[in-house]
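Data availability (excerpt). The following record was deposited with the supplementary files.
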Amino acid sequence: MDGLAGLNVADAGPASQEKHRAVPADGKHAHSKTARSRLAATLPGNVGPFTRLALEQAAQRPGQPITILQAGCTTAGSELDLAALRASGHEVEVLLIDDETPASRAVVAGRPDLESAMLGELRAVPLRPRSFDIVHCSLLLHRISNAEMVLGRLTAALRPGGLLFLRMADPGSARGFLDRRLPEFVRSFAWRSIRPGQPGPYPAVYERVASARGVELFMSRHGLTIASRARALSAASQARSGAARAAAGLVAWLSRGRLPADHDELCYVVRKPEDRFARVLR
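Predicted structure:
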């Protein structure tokens, strides 16, 4: 995940970059630049890349609440620290949603911080277009059906200039391959051994959009810019038993490295371009 901090638009392939036109440095842009500079000088070094970018986004809207849609709230980790956002003095408004499964229901029931979460069919959850500064989609895409339609609704809910923080399992990794191919009873046993007492496992659906190539194509078709990307090894994978690590290593060896074992997640920062000529009708 920390690899995101050193990536920028230049790291994205040609299909995921957009052409930028120079914008005059009027009062608004000058204020935003000054705010970002001050913020960079005061942020602690242990702030993660998603949180750092969220704080920078909030600094561009002084005096206004920062609106966040967290999709996949029951599997979201600490990659976006909402407490740090609030501690910085920003008013934060958060809408929590997730797909309704036995695992997600159990997680919500056991966590008071998710009391307001909306669980249900994500194709039907009411989301007002162009209404969120940040959409955080965490470990959701690979475990739901109709993933492309859901991702389309999430990006439509972003304001122009807004950010999508996307974290998902990588089906092209050794662990992703095992998650997709192992029988359900084996997945359940592995989940209980790695995460004892935690609800799960979640479904392993892995539709086409829930892959590196699928994300690239989706963002290109919808005019969205991949600002940065990184591969990450989840904490759960790092804590796995020797047998689990050996299984991933065997898959990597048998595939001659095509299914690597050095990571199991993909992380993206995606920006919705500004459209200075569009007006939102209220």
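Summary of structural features: The first strand starts at residue 66 and ends at 71.
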